[in-house]
Amino acid sequence: RAAEYTIADRLSGDEWQGVVATAQELIGALTAAQGVLEQAAKEVDEQKQTRLEGLRQAAMRLAGTVSLECQANAEGTVHWCETSASRSRRSHSQQDRVVLHRTPIDVADLLRERLWANTERAILTSATLTASGSFSYLRSRLGLDEELDEHVIGSPFDYRSQALLYVPGHLPAPEREPTREYYDRVAEEIARIVKLSRGRAFLLFTSRRALDEAHVRLISALPFPLFRQGDMPPAKLLKAFRESECGCLLGNQTFWEGVDVQGEALSVVVIDRIPFAVPDSPITKARTDAIEAAGGNSFFDYSLPQAQIRLKQGFGRLIRTRTDRGIVCILDSRIHTKRYGEEIVRNLPAASRASIWSRVERFWNG
Questions:
Q1: Which residues, 6+ apart, have CB-to-CB distance to 287 below 8 Å?
Q2: Of 273, 281, 279, the residue nearest 252 (C-alpha)
Q3: How far is CA 173 from the centre of its chain?
Q4: CA 32: distance to chain centroid?
Q5: Which of 106, 112, 125, 209 has the fewest other C-beta atoms within 10 Å?
Q6: By three-state DSSP, how is residue 327 classified?
């Protein structure tokens, strides 16, 4: 079953109160069901009593969960709903699903109260903790206010000789609503890179639509097998990619981080655009609004650091050992044209750089 669309909308105060009212009705129904099940258990044999008691307890737990969510303090949280539709491949019937979410706008206070206040000592380590060479963004997000020991340890890899960062200067800057012509040019550039590397590529996208637009164009443009996220479970998809020895894996979430493919099996990583958070998503909008209301700059305090860390995660899929070698391509000309572009590159591993195709060919054949 493949998802056809997903829509996320922030709930207004009145809409949330409507949800709470409906939830109260549900709690009442679940409470009544407990009484019915308890009475029914008195009139059946022992085996059926056990089953009915299990159902009663399940109704009690669900009522408790719903009640807890309704009573939760709404201050500092954003309420939103996610609506998705999917079509069964067997019956072709459409199934709609709505999920309600309550997300903290800022987790710093929660972590101070529930984690750091009860922790004597902790070590936080990762390859992607800093943004612009500083831990400031991480500290502000995690509520780390006290004086801490901070260290950035250099990489054992020689990125300048092992990796090339290619940002083509001839592509148009991505738009909020990309055109068909834009997707055509992106697919053409991907095909040119992947043909040079003879497959063996991760193609990472910032949206499902961009992934699908590339996939439909690359099917006929490439002689290599394409493995698309969602067509099979992630572990099976990665296994199939490795076993193909020349495939291209298209992903938009899971494969940006935590995936380890060493050696020539992965020689190219293509990233379709700078991974800024979707500005009108409920969580992003709530967090950027809160930053602006507090006198901050939501772009430099939130959007840019997040994108820098995400890009480092994507870049990190390529060089996994001292002998790995390959190309990372970011198909976003804003790196050349915007003032923040150089800051983004400076935050990535110190690979060789190219903006024209002849330089890419020289590196690959060198």
A1: 105, 106, 298, 302
A2: 273
A3: 22
A4: 41
A5: 125
A6: strand
For 250-272, letters b (16+ CB in 10 Å) and e give bbbeebbbebebeeebbbbbbbb
Element (H, E) at 81: strand 77-87
Among 135, 36, 205, CA closest to 347 = 135
Instruction: Encode pLDDT of 156-198 as tens digits.
Output: 999 999 999 999 999 999 988 889 999 999 999 999 999 999 9
Q: Is 276 helix (H, G, I), strand (E, B) or coil?
A: coil
Q: Which residues are registered as beta bridge partners of 204?
A: 251, 271
| Token output for 165 | 């960062």
Q: Which amino acid appears at position 92 of this protein?
A: H
C-beta neighbour count of 205 within 10 angstroms: 26
Tell me the pTM.
0.82
CA dihedral for 341, 346, 348, 353, sign (positive or negative): positive
SS3 of 38, please? helix
- Among candidates 311, 335, 314, 277, which has minimal Cα distance to 202? 314
